[in-house]
Fold these 2 entries.
Entry 1:
Amino acid sequence: MNAQWADPMIQPQRALSAQAMAYASIGNVAVGFDILGHSVAGAGDRAWVRRIDEPTVRIAAIRGCVDSLPLEAGNNTAGAALLSLRRALGLRHGFEVELHKGIALGSGMGGSAASCVAALVAANALLERPLPREALYGFALDGEAVASGSRHGDNLGPMLLGGLVLATRERLLRLPVPDAWHCALVHPHVVLETRRSRAVLTDGFALSEVVAQHANLALVLTGCHRGDAALVREGLKDVLVEPRRAPLVPGFARVKQAALDHAALGASISGGGPSVFGWYEHRADAERAAAAMAAAFAEQGIASDALVSPINGPAAELVDEDEA
Amino acid sequence: MNAQWADPMIQPQRALSAQAMAYASIGNVAVGFDILGHSVAGAGDRAWVRRIDEPTVRIAAIRGCVDSLPLEAGNNTAGAALLSLRRALGLRHGFEVELHKGIALGSGMGGSAASCVAALVAANALLERPLPREALYGFALDGEAVASGSRHGDNLGPMLLGGLVLATRERLLRLPVPDAWHCALVHPHVVLETRRSRAVLTDGFALSEVVAQHANLALVLTGCHRGDAALVREGLKDVLVEPRRAPLVPGFARVKQAALDHAALGASISGGGPSVFGWYEHRADAERAAAAMAAAFAEQGIASDALVSPINGPAAELVDEDEA
């Protein structure tokens, strides 16, 4: 035990409950399928976590814009993540969780990841020795696997660290992006299940497609490192996955064109869809694009929500419990 | 015409002939199939180019370690590049070329690219207004296509600019690498034709392979940008192409292991093979690895040459004609 805590009189009193918010995110970012994502301000999931004496994890309630999720901890993304945390740390105590969903499931905005990260960040605050954010990643992957059937961190990573994040199976790396760059993210009110949007990706990919996508990924990464919008504009194109998924997003071509029409660096499907995003050098362009994208969905009779956020979006954070 | 050249008395006298050297290169670099390469000091092709009055391109001679190449300009990599240059610039004069090959064909060290780049750099020096190196890239791609049947710039790019280069179809970007990092490149004396090593890549690639390779590429690029050897070590693995090509390189597994045994950042096949390379943080490790890799080839009765070079290898350069 740390020497400064040896005197029980100055040992910090750990709270018995905590609440955390994890923000939405854009997965894939056109060129980094399953490995690249960034967080988005303006929508998120909240998790309220209580330490309990029983050596278990309980999902007490799920509220908000989704309520048909499994309450059995092992089948719930937040529950599975906390079970994994308990097991790895050999915790004697358990957790009770209430989720308040602000991100629709099947929206392509990282809804399952957000519940998972919010629960982990809140539970972490209740540990005697809270872990650094990066150390929560493996538990988050365990949770995400329950929801999507795949261990991918392109939503989890940016929720944990904020901003644009490269998420491999082993680690997270935050990548630099100019603060002025913004995204427009428009969520049509139709559901596209992650599993369904993955089913169109089972055939083999041609070498030429793979090489073109590699080149685009390299251009975007180099452009972000250099803060060079021209490189990002050249590379921010999904030639691999978007052509296969576009038919699953109603009116995709028109919405994407609306995104591109406002000086976009690029535009594509967010995560597994059906949300669509664009990247912009300036907030004003992102705002105009968001309105145009929502209008393009509306023309087809589809209602939508629009978010505009810095690409350097927020990391998950503890919130005052009174805000619940 | 530029104002400073308006007076014919001060117009520079262009030379009538020039000689250039283009150095070997490592293509693909494990994670960037067709788009990532770096130059290698110690071996290269020389081209001697003369301005001629006839509106044509002639290959007068091919000497050195290869002499079975086509002399018909349109079928020769250097000839095709110069034909493309002539056409694009509307030149009235032509070129006569002599090539001195220092890089074996079918070695995976960019032999065809080197002749092409050396000829372009020499011919460029004979133009009234020489072009910047990047502007030669398109002509070089035209030449490379004749030799390999594919427009890829992972050898051409580093030969033109030096060092580690990202080469898309449209542009070249030099990437930062610490000066201390070195490669070992060992060329076994067996020929593997580029077309044959491409033939094993015609089947479709699974999404999981593509994503793993994406992640490795992103780690290597980020590691190079940060000068972070740990990231490069984590990512410098070819999970996409190497498994399919390894059977074409005699004793590949043992040679690769010899490369890895000396604190390598990673090791794989150079270009289309059969040469094998490793990356190292220090020159001394690269030298020990090169000897061990050559020994591993020798155990199978295969002679080889070994090169050790900074990853920031040299760009093609004009050389004194007396050195011919």
Entry 2:
Amino acid sequence: MPVTPARLVLHEVGLRDGLQMEHASVPTERKLQWIKELAETGLDILQIGSFVHPAKVPQMADTDELFRVLTAPGVLPEGVILSGLVLNEKGLERGMAAGVPMFCMGVSASETHSRKNTGMSVAEATDRIIAIAKLALSAGRGVQVSVQSAFGCGYEGHVPEERVLSIVRRYLDAGITSISLADTAGHAAPDAVESLFAAVRNLDPGAELTCHFHNTYGMGLANCIAAQRAGVTSFESSVAGLGGCPFTKVAGGNVCTEDFVHMLQRMGLRTDVRLGKIIAVAQDVAAFFGRELPGMVYKTGTLTSAV
Amino acid sequence: MPVTPARLVLHEVGLRDGLQMEHASVPTERKLQWIKELAETGLDILQIGSFVHPAKVPQMADTDELFRVLTAPGVLPEGVILSGLVLNEKGLERGMAAGVPMFCMGVSASETHSRKNTGMSVAEATDRIIAIAKLALSAGRGVQVSVQSAFGCGYEGHVPEERVLSIVRRYLDAGITSISLADTAGHAAPDAVESLFAAVRNLDPGAELTCHFHNTYGMGLANCIAAQRAGVTSFESSVAGLGGCPFTKVAGGNVCTEDFVHMLQRMGLRTDVRLGKIIAVAQDVAAFFGRELPGMVYKTGTLTSAV
């Protein structure tokens, strides 16, 4: 009997990772509109903000409000999960109060990146994230933990697999089994992706694995396919490929949601997703920012009969 | 003992497939400069023109001259192979006279595409191409035959695998074993790529397989990886990702050579290729056309120490 392939989970992170670099402030009303539209497309999880200090990332200042509005009964279709990023205890408190159903949090595999971002060593940051994750889990919230710079680091370059695996082991030992490996700097190539995710699956074949790639060097979709081959079932991506630096010509955004869904649908996967509606949001996002965004399918049109 | 992976062959087609859609005429001197620069990068084969009627594709009118100049002894480094596209007997005659070392030629797997391009059915076009290929082979020239629209057709949509395989069988029966499958309309997705090339390998495990993808929907590099998994050892690509339609915003060019080489080198493959020199040509090509071309790495820079 052939194995039924696992249903692939689509985690849209455009409203968080996509917007946090954008300096043009997006009004809360506009965010609400995009989120409501995306919630009707069949995407599974929408990451809509980050509980970071508003002075640090003004674009994320309305995160609490977004959760309060959108988690009210009947606002979004049944089954759509909202996720939010937290960096520390204070963020978790805010997120708990705002009713966040799923928390995302992580540490960097790079000592330099970790110290620059958190002032802590990787080991210390891991202790802290595990403590926060346990608090969220004991409150009945969903939790996904991540390892950032898992495939390389802008400061340190190569990141050895064992460094990533030692963090993953600590997550698993703490009973946290939803794990994302993030290619924060866009360094991943397909062979490294397949190798590292296979090694993680070896640690716990039952872990729920997520990948998070940036398309800085054009390898984003190739890396997603490599991840899928290694047993990854959940994919983070960003509408219109948002997430690059808006002040350069560099199209280094997240893997583009509609480009990824288009590829999946060409392969007969996730044909339930309403690609045409995602594309409409991508076009609206590009119009809002008044520039061409990295996504390709929203410009070229699709080969599938997008609805 | 681990199997030594086959050396991957890089076939640059920017000067032919990349330029033929461009209306801005590229002076012969400029082409010669680009070709000479590319010939010093370690790319294996350079496709520099097409023996089509000059009135039909004025950009290719200097193809005979390019071959005559460049095949003179000592003009290009040893070992670099020049290839040229021929469509018919007249083209072959011109190519023979111009000293073409390697001929590329093909038929479409789509009846509609075949009739529109050649006025012939697929079966008739296959007869003709096999006859031309045999002439070239018997003259001691290299020959690569292709199946165009192998993964889908702009007119007919889906192209069944069996239609492609029946053409490949005819090539193999005629003793022609260097075979390229071309995704002329950018329809290929990784699962179809892997499946079709595996089926071709099944017909003749010794055949030398080449892939030719366009990056219309962002799947180009993912398709190259899928092809490599299925045993493809030769890859056609275009410097700067040339090959899209210059009058639209659509970045639907060929797979970009320097993006592909960059990915390979991240995977430890073809580290002999001088990526930095390819990037320099890409930048010069983009400057010549005065617009941003689809390639990413020539804009972002590289993660490898490109030389």
